[in-house]
Amino acid sequence: MTLGSRPSAVCRLVGSMTALACVSLAPPAHSADAPPWLEPYRAPAQQLIAAARADDFAWRRLAELTDTFGPRLSGSPALEAALAWAATEMKKDGLENVRLEPVMVPRWVRGRESAEIVQPFPSPLVMLGLGGSVGTGPQGLEAEVLVVGSFDDLETRAAEAKGRIVFFNVPFTGYGPTVRYRSDGASRAARHGAVAALIRSVGPMGLRTPHTGAMNYAEDAPKIPAAALSAEDANRLQRIHDRGQRLVVRLQMEARHEADAPSANLIGEIRGREKPDEIVLLGCHSDSWDPGTGALDDAGGCIATWDVLRLVKKLGLQPRRTLRVVLFTNEENGLRGGLAYRDAHAGEDHVLAIESDGGVFPPTGFGFSGPDLARATVETIATLLAPLGADKIGPRGGGADIGPIVRAKQVPALSPDGDAGRYFLMHHTPADTVERVEPDEVSRHVAALAVMAYVVADLPGRLVP
Amino acid sequence: MTLGSRPSAVCRLVGSMTALACVSLAPPAHSADAPPWLEPYRAPAQQLIAAARADDFAWRRLAELTDTFGPRLSGSPALEAALAWAATEMKKDGLENVRLEPVMVPRWVRGRESAEIVQPFPSPLVMLGLGGSVGTGPQGLEAEVLVVGSFDDLETRAAEAKGRIVFFNVPFTGYGPTVRYRSDGASRAARHGAVAALIRSVGPMGLRTPHTGAMNYAEDAPKIPAAALSAEDANRLQRIHDRGQRLVVRLQMEARHEADAPSANLIGEIRGREKPDEIVLLGCHSDSWDPGTGALDDAGGCIATWDVLRLVKKLGLQPRRTLRVVLFTNEENGLRGGLAYRDAHAGEDHVLAIESDGGVFPPTGFGFSGPDLARATVETIATLLAPLGADKIGPRGGGADIGPIVRAKQVPALSPDGDAGRYFLMHHTPADTVERVEPDEVSRHVAALAVMAYVVADLPGRLVP
User: Fold this and answer.
1) Could you tell me if residue B464 is inside a domain?
2) Among A324, B24, B120, B122, which residue has the least CB neighbours within 10 Å?
3) Residue of A nearest to B67 (CA)
4) End position of a domain, from candidates B254, B277, B305
5) Would you say the C-alpha torsion B446, B448, B450, B453 has a positive or negative sign?
C-alpha cells in the first residue's frame, strides 16, 4: 500500500469488542517550535505506529507464549522452554546476535499449601504462600492469630506475639506503602516469637484473589512461614477478631528452596548502521510468578520490547545505533538477570535503557530519569506520539531489571506509563492472563516504545553527549 | 425518636464507601386511585422501611453467619452448626415456634482436585469439580481434549469423543442457555465414550474465577468426572486448539458421595392475630456451595427473610395471618428441603410464598406468579415501595425451595428482582462472600420484603379469595 492510497485513520474494536477506537494516520501537524532534527523522524514514526497497529501480531504472540508455557517461575522447566521458543522466534524475525547468556537463578518451589480457620469454626481460607517462604513441615502449624494493623501496632503488642500467627491486615493504599509488609512482615513477627506471618494481599480487592510476591528473611530472626490472604479473607479474620472471638488458624505449606538452577538472559539485536557499539537497551523480564501466566508481569513487556525490533527490522529502518532487547531472567525473586547483565555488559556503551514492566496498556507517555538536556530531547521525540496520546514525559523512568546497569553506568532510563489500577488488581495473582489486555492496547504500547527507541537510536548525536 | 422529630431522609455511604445514597422518609403521596384498604398500611410500611434502614443489623448478621461458619454444603458440619446458631438467634429475636424439621440430605465431598495441561507443555488450570461428580480415582486420568462449542457440535464430532476429555466451551450468554452444559454435559459426552467432561464456567469472566454447581448423570450413560474451568482457562484451551496443537489434559478429583446425612429445615413464625392458620411463607436456603461462604447464595436471602419477622416483631406489628420464615436445606444439590416441606406442610393453608434467592441487592420490584386479581393487589401494595424504587411487579415469581409447595397447592409466588450481572459474576464461586453487597443494599432488600410480606399477611381478605 502506498502512502497516497493509505486511509486517513485506523479503527478497530477494543474493550469488550463493542467499541471502536480510531487513531489518525495523518502525520502530526508540524509544530512551529519543533527543532529541525525532528523532521526526518516524522515519516518513520508514522510508519512504526501504523505497522504496530496494523494487526494484532503482538497480542497473538503474547497469547501463544502464555498459553503454551503458562507460569514461568525462575528455575522452572516452563521458563527455560519459553526462552528456547523465544530465541527461535527471534531468529525467525531476523534479529541479530540472538543469544542466551547463562545465569544461575534461585529455585523456590511452592508445593501444596492451604490455610484454614480452626476456631471459631473450621473453614478454608484463600491464600498464596509468599515467594521465598519456608514451609511449615508436613504436620503444618496451628496457632491463635494476633491481628495487627501496622508495624507500629505490632511493636505495641509485641508481648502477645509469642507462639502466635501474626496477621498484618494493612489496607492497600498503593504498592509502595504496603509491599513492605510482604517483604519484611515475617521477620518482624518472628523477632517477637511468632510462628508464622499472614498478610493482607498487596493489591485492591478482586474476586477472592490472593496476591503472592517475594518476601525476605532478616538474618537476625528465625525463618517462619509467610502467606498472603485474599482481601475478603483478611476482612473476615478482622471481623471475627473484632467480635471478640478467639481466632485460631491452621497453615500448611510445602514451600522450599531447591538448588540454584540454570537460566539465561535472552538477547537480540538490530545492529546500528553507523555506531553499532552505542546501545539503546530495551528490557523486560521473562520469569513470572507461578499462579498466573504472567501475561502482564511481564510477558507483555517482553513481547512489546521484542516487537519494537521486529517492526524496525520489518520496515527496514536500521538506525545509526544498535537496538538491543534483553529478556532478563529472575526479576521476581532474585534479580539475578539484571545483575548478571550489568556484570557482563558494563563495559559497553549504553545510550539509553528502556524497561516495560508495568503492563502493556496504552501509555499516556513515559517516565524519564536522566540529565535535563536529554529530557528535553525525549520530550521533543514524544511529540511524535501525540496521535497515540502518549506524549507526556514525567519524572522517574526505570525498571528493576535495567536498574543495575543504569545505576552502575548512569544510563538515562525510560519506562512507559502504566495503569496502576488495572495492573495491581491482577499483579502476582492467578488472574494475570492475556485476557487482562486487549489487542489494540498492546499495539499502542508497542507503537509508543518503537518510536521512542528508534528515534533515540538514530539521533545524529548521542542522547547524552 | 418520635415521628415528629424524625429526619426527612436517611443517607448512608454505599458502594466503595465514597457515595451517599439517600432515601426519603416521607410517606409517599397518596395516589388518587389508591384503594381505601391501602391507606392503613402507609404508616406500618413507613415504619418497616425506616426500621430496616435504621442500621446495618442485617448485614452484620450476614457477616457473622458467613464469617463464623463459612461454606455450608449439604451434609457438612458447618451447615448444621449454622442452623443451630440460627435457631438460637431466632428465639432471641422473639420468633415463635422456632424448630428444626429433620431432612436427610445428600453428602457430596469435593476432596482434593486439580487439572493441568500436559501437552503442549505442562501447566496448571484453574478448575472446580462439579457438584455430584464422581472422582477420577487416585491415579487421575489423562487424555487428549476434544473441544466442542455446543451439544450439536458434539453430535457432529461424536466419533472423535471416544477416550477423550470432551470440553464444552460455550460462552456465557445467560444462565438459562448455558447451565444445561453443566447439568448434562458429562452424560452427553459419556454416551460417545468420553472419559471426562470439562465445561467453561457458567458465568461471566471474573478474575480467573471458576464456578461450580450441580450436575446430573443420566441413567443410560457411564458416570465420568466433570469439572468447570475458569473463563480464562477455557479461552486458553480454545486458543491452543485453534493453533492446531495437540492438547492433552490431566484431571485428578477425589470427589465422592458419602451416605446421606441429617440436616433440617429451620422454621420460625410470628403467629397471626386473627387467622393464624393462613400462612405467608418467606423462604431461602441455608446450604451453599463449598468454595465461597455463600453470602449471596443464599445466606443473604435467609438473613433478609428472617429479618422481616424480626422487624415485624420488634415493631409490635402482629399481622392478621401468620408470617413464617423457612431456611430450607439442600437447595443446591438435591432440593430435599423444599420437597420435605411440601410433604410435611401441604395440608396447611399457604396464602403466599416469597423466596429470596437471587442476591440481597436493592430490588426494583418483584416477580409475581398467581391469579390476575392477586397480581393487582400486589401491584397496589408495591406502590408503598416507591420510596425504595422497588415498586415494579413483573412476571414470574418463585424460587427453587418454595417450588414444590407452590406447584402442589397453586400458591401465589413472589420473588424480589435481583441484579443478574452482579449475581452471576460471583454465583457458585469462591468470591461469593459478604463483600459482594453493601449494608445499605441489604437493608433496602429487607425493607421491600418486609412491606410486601406484612401487608399481604394483614390484608382484610385473602390475597386469593
Assistant:
1) no
2) B24
3) A236
4) B254
5) negative
A331 annotated active-site: yes
Do A206 and B205 lie within an 8 Å CB cutoff? no
User: What's the domain range around B446?
Assistant: 3-106+260-458
Task: Compute the distance between CA of residue A9 and CA of residue A324 in angstroms, rounded to an integer.
Answer: 31
| Catalytic position from the list A80, A269, A331, A438 | A331
**What's the CATH number where B227 sits?**
3.50.30.30
| Residues in contact with B168: Cβ distance below 8 Å, sequence separation at least 6, in sequence order | B148, B149, B150, B154, B181, B185, B189, B197, B198, B199, B200
Whose cell is 493504599? That residue is A173
Instruction: Check A207 against B69: CB less than 8 A apart.
Output: no
Q: How many CB atoms lie within 10 A of CB A187?
A: 21
CB distance A267 to A17 below 8 Å? no
Q: Are residues B243 and B278 in the same domain?
A: no
Instruction: Decide which of B254, B287, B315 is a domain's last residue.
Output: B254
* Angstrom distance (rounded) from CA A381 to CA A397: 16
Would residue B69 count as lying in a domain? yes
Cα–Cα distance, B465 to B455 (Å, whole number): 15
* B277 shares a domain with B358: yes
Give the integer Cα–Cα distance in Å for B104 and B106: 7
Do A280 and A342 sit in the same domain of this protein? Answer: yes
H-only helix segments in A208-355:
231-242, 300-314, 336-345
Clarify whether residues A372 and A250 are in a common domain. no
Residues B228 and B242 in one domain: yes
For residue B465, the model assigns a pLDDT of 87
Q: What is the CATH number of the domain that holds A414?
A: 3.40.630.10
The residue annotated as part of the active site, out of B80, B331, B332, B438, is B331
Residue A16 scores a pLDDT above 70: no
Q: How would you write the pLDDT of chain B (465 residues) with one tens digit per residue?
A: 233 333 333 333 333 333 333 444 444 445 567 999 999 999 999 999 999 999 999 999 999 999 999 999 999 999 999 999 999 999 999 999 999 999 999 999 999 999 999 999 999 999 999 999 999 999 999 999 999 999 999 999 999 999 999 999 999 999 999 999 999 999 999 999 999 999 999 999 999 999 999 999 999 999 999 999 999 999 999 999 999 999 999 999 999 999 999 999 999 999 999 999 999 999 999 999 999 999 999 999 999 999 999 999 999 999 999 999 999 999 999 999 999 999 999 999 999 999 999 999 999 999 999 999 999 999 999 999 999 999 999 999 999 999 999 999 999 999 999 898 999 999 999 999 999 999 999 999 999 999 999 999 999 999 998
Does residue A236 sit in the same domain as residue A131? yes
In angstroms, the first-to-last Cα distance of chain A is: 39
Q: What is the pTM of this model?
A: 0.93
Please indicate whether, in this complex, the C-beta atoms of B239 and A120 are within 8 angstroms of each other.
Answer: no
C-alpha–C-alpha distance, residues A325 and B329, integer Å: 60
Contact B64 A243 (CB under 8 A): yes
Question: Which residues of A touch chain B, with CB atoms under 8 Å apart?
Answer: 63-64, 67-71, 77-78, 81, 117, 120-124, 126, 205-209, 231-232, 235-236, 239-240, 243, 245, 292-293, 425-426, 429-431, 433, 435
How near does any CA of chain B get to the CA of A236, in Å?
A: 6
The reply to whether residue A81 touches residue B207, judged by beta carbons under 8 angstroms, is: no
Contact assignment for A208 to B429 by CB distance below 8 Å: yes
Comparing alpha-carbon positions, the chain A residue that sits nearest to B248 is: A68
Asked whether residue A364 is domain-assigned, the answer is yes
User: Mean per-residue pLDDT for A247-257?
Assistant: 98
Residue B377 sits in the same domain as residue B433: yes
Q: Which residue of A has its CA nearest to B435?
A: A232
Same structural domain, B70 and B94? yes
- How many domains is chain A partitioned into structurally? 2
Tell me how close the Cα of B289 comes to any Cα of chain A, in angstroms. 13
- Share the mean pLDDT of chain A: 94
